[in-house]
Design goal:
single chain; two-stranded parallel ribbon; 5 helices; 2 strands; mainly alpha
Length: 79
């Protein structure tokens, strides 16, 4: 699922919207990265394909605060 040649942080992966549509998860966690101002969930809200997802239809999309990612990364480094 990780794009070739793209370094990812531990525990993170980049997946395409097409791949998410294939899985059609019950719950989705998203995180917005700078320099974006609008939350990623809001940026995707008007995408017709995004609206087809079960998690979106059931209101189960959660924006993860970058603070928690930083804490998880710090925890992984001390293991």
């Amino acid at each position: 699922m990780e794009p070739a040649g793209k370094r990812m942080e531990p525990g993170l992966m980049t997946v395409s919207l097409d791949h998410i549509l294939q899985i059609n998860p019950d719950v989705i966690f998203v995180q917005t990265y700078p320099p974006s101002i609008a939350p990623l969930s809001q940026q995707l809200a008007n995408q017709p394909r995004w609206k087809r997802l079960k998690a979106v239809q059931m209101g189960q999309v959660y924006e993860v605060d970058p603070f928690w990612l930083a804490m998880a990364q710090a925890s992984c480094r001390s293991c």
